[in-house]
Design brief:
By secondary structure, the chain is an alpha+beta fold. The chain has one domain. 28% of the residues lie in helices and 31% in strands. It has helices at 43-58, 74-82, 85-88, 92-106, 108-113, 156-161, 188-194, 198-210, 242-246, and strands at residues 7-18, 22-23, 29-30, 38-41, 114-116, 125-127, 130-132, 135-140, 144-150, 168-186, 222-233, 249-253, 266-270, 279-285. The strands form four sheets. Strands 1, 4, 7, 8, 9, 10, 11 and 14 form an eight-stranded antiparallel beta sheet that branches. A two-stranded antiparallel sheet has the order 2-3. A two-stranded antiparallel sheet has the order 5-6. The two termini are 28 Å apart. This is CRISPR-associated protein, Csd2 family. InterPro entries: Cas7_Csh2/Csh2, CRISPR-assoc_prot_Cas7/Csd2. One of its GO terms (biological process) is maintenance of CRISPR repeat elements.
């Protein structure tokens, strides 16, 4: 079933003693706004976790393959769309459009987030109906640096170069605690162009609620979803601006707390009274 409503949503998640999104150009330090000290998590980081969750739970089910995944050769996947009978039978001018539609029908992340697929035999470009902002921490974060040791070596040459035991030194960075806020937007108009429907939307919400439980690693510490506040509009174009709706959710550190080290240090206030006409607030989490 196609989407009939526009959605705007806020997503809260936190990290404890972990690195939520390291910057490879900065020695894998947690990403930080240099001027404010606020922590950042990129949109593609969260999209990766959604893709991984869908790949894990749907097991390559028809219509739920993942286009951007580990070790994928994208041009081969794009070329595959041109090998389909429904695409190959088209005239040259219609082939790209038919290939694009086939990719949307078969790959969840293409019809959800969009994709540039003009590098192979050309399946065009898709604007995805779901767009995410960078996540920003509520308060400034501190990146803690830790020295670690490795007791083993990888080659005999490396072993011979070590004096005494085989210990080698390394570095690891963590955020003691950070609460992050992400803003998201879902366009019904673009959803109808890509074929993103109600079942896809349900799976996306499920991903945001459960994806951290299937993305554990020592480097990421403890990451958890803390809030998912969805503003559903009564039509495709919307009934109010996203900014005015987002202002109804206030996340503040409790006055008696000096340094936040858990979600309990924060208070989330949601103004539910007086919502604009045609707006429904859905609280999935929080």
């Amino acid at each position: 079933m196609s989407l009939q409503n526009r959605y705007d949503f806020l997503y809260l998640f936190d990290v404890k003693d972990g690195n939520p999104n390291g910057d490879p150009d900065a020695g894998n330090l947690p990403r930080i706004d240099a001027e404010t000290g606020m922590g950042l998590v990129t949109d593609v980081c969260l999209k990766r976790k959604v893709r991984n969750f869908v790949q894990l739970t749907q097991q390559e089910k028809t219509g739920y393959k993942i286009f951007v995944k580990e070790k994928a050769i994208l041009n081969n996947l794009i070329d595959e769309s041109h090998e389909q009978e429904a695409v190959a039978s088209k005239e040259k001018g219609d082939k790209t459009e038919a290939a694009k539609q086939w990719m949307c029908d078969n790959y969840f992340d293409v019809r959800t987030f969009g994709a540039v697929m003009s590098t192979g035999k050309n399946a065009g470009q898709v604007r995805g109906p779901i767009q995410l902002t960078f996540s920003r921490s509520i308060d400034p974060i501190v990146a803690s640096e830790h020295s670690i040791t490795r007791m083993a070596v990888t080659t005999e040459k490396e072993s011979e170069s070590q004096k005494g035991d085989n210990r080698t030194m390394g570095r690891k960075f963590t955020v003691p605690y950070g609460l992050y806020l992400c803003k998201g937007f879902i366009s019904a108009n673009l959803a109808n162009q890509t074929g993103f429907g109600e079942e896809d939307l349900t799976l996306f919400w499920q991903s945001l609620e459960q994806m951290f439980d299937h993305d554990r690693s020592a480097s990421r510490g403890e990451m958890s979803p803390r809030g998912l506040y969805i503003f559903k509009h009564s039509n495709e174009l919307g009934n109010a601006s996203a900014a005015s709706l987002f202002d109804r959710v206030k996340v503040t550190k409790k006055p008696e707390v000096d340094v936040a080290r858990s979600f309990d240090a924060y208070q989330v206030d949601v103004i539910e009274n007086g919502l604009p006409e045609g707006i429904e607030l859905i609280r999935k989490l929080g």
